[in-house]
Amino acid sequence: MSLIFILLFSFINISPAQEDKFFRNFSLGQYLYKQKQYQKAISRFDKALQANTKQDKVLLWRAMTYLALKKYSKAEEDLMALISEGYENEKIYYLFGMVVLKQQKYMWAMRSFKRCLFFNQNNQRARFYLAYTLMKIEEYENSRKLLEKILESSQTDKEIQKKARLLFALCNYRLKKLSQARKQLFSLNQTQKTRSLDKMLNLIYKRELGLKHGWGANIRIDAGMDSNPSMNTDGIIYEQADQKAALVNDISLHLWWNPNNSISAELSFLRSSYFSPWDDVTNQITGSFSKTAMFAGTSWRHIYLEEGDYRLWEIGYNFSLVALDGGDGIPLEDSIFLFSERHSLQAGWKKVVSSDVSHAFVLSPNYTTFRDIDRNGFGITLMEQSNYFFNKKQNKIFNSINLGFQDAKWAAWKNLFAGFWLGTSFIGPYKTDLVFSISGNFKYFLETDDVFAGGADNSWGLEDGKERIDFDFGAGILLSRDLDSKKRFKLQLKLQYSNNWSTAAYFNYDRFITMLGIQGRLSL
Hints:
The chain is α+β, with helices and mostly antiparallel strands. The chain has helices at 2-11, 16-34, 38-51, 56-68, 72-84, 90-102, 106-119, 124-136, 140-152, 158-174, 178-191, 195-209, 448-451, and strands at residues 214-226, 230-232, 239-241, 246-258, 263-275, 284-286, 291-306, 309-324, 338-354, 357-370, 377-390, 395-406, 415-427, 433-445, 469-482, 489-502, 509-523.
């Protein structure tokens, strides 16, 4: 037997003493590596190589040790030496992939992990790091496909499964599949709650809900024509007269402030000016009046997750003022002839099913006072709103439904009301946003037949014994286009038609409005 060893070592030019030195240092280096004494292990591997420079296993173990010491260039040298000498296997390419990945050499890492999978298709760690590398070079869809294979495999260990689920969620986020990313991160957060997962979920719902911190302002200037429904006031009962078109100009300013995700405040002003001559001969009164309006509101919201979907509770207070001008064109009114002040509370709940679907419900009790105090009273409104996005958010359908009751000091003004609004939008030619909408509003005045019974003053023109019912139908088209790449300025054209039908002749009219405007946005 000893003769065989002597002949073998003579053939490879290694003496028995050298062989003993090699095995002793190599074994000790492996032991020190496992004890995490990496620097001492390197010294032993160096001595083993001095005894036998042809040992591929020593270079492999030394490369592993250099990788543990974060000496990536030295580890790369050892592995390149092995590959150049024709040593190719699963482990060498896996290690080489990890080494160049640490050096952010993503193309080399991608090739190495692919080569590793060539030797073993079941190496889920190599597949995971290949997916990670693809994500780094922004090939999110290919990365996602690899991760799906890992998650479907029963051979994947728990550590890689956990990492793959997180990376899969990140890929979905990068691909703007926000609802999928949210639900996956939520599931992970249930089992391994961490601050980083909370941060990522927070980032997603800010994008999904459109939350912006800081402050901003929108200003809009519109000018156009209103068909201007008119009434003849010669008699006791107002009657419709020939319409005389009016020029109209709107200027609005909207300010918002969101210091954080929970608190928001806004303030709006509107000035609408009509230019239509008063007819002294027929005493014709216009149905369109110049007005000034102001709105202020503040709200607090609480956002939480339930089964991976966002829920939002919101409570707030709103205050509004509306004043219609008097003076020229309105007889016997030298100053503001209608002034209303409304205080509203609101409680809302919103469910974000996905980044493409959401539903909201709002309950709003209010109290309104008028200069003409016979319309003062409490009211309550319940509203439902939904949004549906399609075709990668290129198309949208949105609707609102409301119903409620409005009390009043004078019984004739008490009413039940209901309404709907339905719109759809899409991107048209030349990146133009097109919005088509229809709406309907119904009002039933509960006690008008009693108020005007027995020949009482009936200026509304109701037939005896009939109650007032109003129905307003509307249809509109809005075309808008951004004027700059940062979307700070927008040109808008609005066409709107409404038909108001009523059992009271005073409120029967058609109306058509055309407006051209420009909108500017500023935010910090």
